[in-house]
Amino acid sequence: MNSTRLTLLLNPPGQNIYIRDYYCSKLSRTGYTFPPIDLLHVGAVFNAHGWQTQAIDAIVQGLGVEEILADVKTRKPDVIFILVGAVSVDEDAEFLKRLRPLVPDALLIGSGDVLREHGRKWLESGLLDAVTLDFSSPSVVRFAEGETDNLEDLIYKVGDEIVEGPTSTGKTFAIGLPPHELFQPFPYRFPFAHRQPFASLLTDYGCPYRCSFCVMANLHYHTRPIEEVAKELAHLQALGIREFALWDQTFAVNRARGLEVLDQLPDGPDKFGWTCFTRPDCIDQDLALKMAAKGCHTVIMGVETAKAESLEAIQKDFSTHDMKLAFTLCRKAGLETVATVIVGLPGENVADIEATMDFVCHLDSDYLSVHTAVPRAGTNLRRQMVAEGLVSEELANMDQSGESAVISSDTLDPHTILALRKRFNRRFYLRPKFLVRTMWHNLKNPARLVEHVKQGLTLLSHNRG
Ligand code: SF4
Q1: CB within 10 Å: which end of the chain, N or C, has fewer?
Q2: Residue 172 lies inside a defined structural domain of this protein
Q3: Is the pLDDT score of 23 beyond 90?
Q4: Would 61 be classed as within a structural domain?
């Protein structure tokens, strides 16, 4: 252990508000941002090995390339752990080209969606020294300390050779305490947070389900020890943080463990407010009531499409009946809901997408998030689109939000997909029922109401017909 060594956790600058986090990247449609979970977990891993950590989130701090390059040079880090995104791939590569000669002795280790598919190339071109395929793995710090054998979930350089470590198979992982205090001063904005400041939290990694479009289905699912989660919650309380976004991809995927996580959350005045993701078939009335009692206020669930054949093709393994039930019981438990949908799935035509719009408006979730189908690294959807000649194997620049890059499906061209995505948003958010309910729910929280109005106006300005 060497307490004088420094790792800089870096979300690099960008020309737009990019979200680069947890092997996803996209343009932030309404300007929302949150502490990147990759940086928090890697920070915990380095801290647990006695390293110092510092953080720069150039996106949320609004810092440009020149400022960051000058700042990094002054800090003289031994390791720079940097986020890279498919949405900003060219900018990120250019930034690394300029960074490298300024810190010739620092190790550059990257994490990001684009690196899961093209990591080896980034090492070959000298932009990075290593790429992590699991940001909760201790391999990054072992590599930084000079180890070269059996580094799981890491692609790394040993001399001129590039080594691909084995994939981990463990069922649990302990990382220590993520350094939330480093990110707390940054002005993150998250539409579902009821309070500021808020944190990002992760109690497991990956997802055991198999949805064909989702990168999480290709990550090795494992969980953190519950005692470590309890310590992290106490750490957040000590920092005065009472709000978090839980980035577990499917809360209560194991119901018993979900209940165990709930048991760690305090009651009374110290109660946290929180948002989580789950699946319609993972939630029941009893669980929803317990989540609400423990401070959960918002649940995000993937609907994707209302077409039964598409649900089967993308291997969602639940039905529209499950969705209706889940959204209803969340509402009854007092939880707000967010439905996420995908426009441009293979085989879907305009009428199919219109039918999904009808279904989602009828579901009447509190909020909606519309994505476009993206052939993300390592997914079955990517393999299918490459096989059908819709995209090249080399494709690296992608935006899951559909703001900056839309890709043809087998049935629809990019222009139609983009127009449908915009129409979907307008149909949902301009319903009188939505507008009245949002006003009503937020009357007692004027700051949140103002935030909603701001985000709503931004969303609508991006979705004009
Ligand atoms: S359930 Fe959600 S996180 Fe899990 S594989 Fe499916 S889409 Fe991905």
Answers
A1: C
A2: no
A3: yes
A4: yes
Query: How far, in Å, from the CA of 278 to the mean position of ligand 1?
Result: 9
Best of 113, 249, 251 for a ligand 1 pocket test (most atoms within 8 Å of beta carbon): 249
d(CA 72, CA 80): 9
Same domain flag for 447 and 401: yes
Phi, psi of 49 (to 5 degrees): -100, 15
Question: Are 206 and 330 found together in one domain?
Answer: yes
Residue that finishes a domain, picked among 164, 179, 206: 164
The most confident of the ranges 107-111, 269-273, 444-448 is: 107-111
**Mean pLDDT across the chain, nearest whole number?**
93
Residue 176, in any domain of the structure: no
Q: Provide the domain limits for residue 332.
A: 190-461
Cα-based angle 360, 362, 363 (whole degrees, multiple of 5): 60
Q: 113, 130, 164 — which closes off a domain?
A: 164
Question: Using CA positions, which residue lies closest to atom 3 of ligand 1?
Answer: 249
Amino acid identity, position 248: D
pLDDT category of residue 1 using cuts at 50, 70 and 90 = very low
pTM: 0.93
CA dist list (Å): 296 to 32, 96, 138, 227: 20, 40, 31, 20
Top mutation candidate among 247, 279, 345 for ligand 1, by most atoms within 8 Å of CB: 279
**Per-residue pLDDT reduced to its tens digit, 349-386:** 999 999 999 999 999 999 999 999 988 877 888 888 88
Tell me: do 229 and 143 sit in the same domain.
no
Higher pLDDT residue, 211 or 442?
A: 211
Q: Does pLDDT of 400 surpass 80?
A: no
- Tally of domains in the chain: 2
- In three-state secondary structure terms, 61 is helix
Around ligand 1, the residues with Cβ closer than 6 Å are 207, 209, 211, 214, 216-217, 249-250, 279, 302
Q: Do 224 and 123 reside in the same domain of the chain?
A: no
Per-residue three-class SS string for 168-201: CCCCECCCCCCCHHHHCCCCCCCCCCCCCCCEEE
Determine the average pLDDT of the residues in 10-18.
97
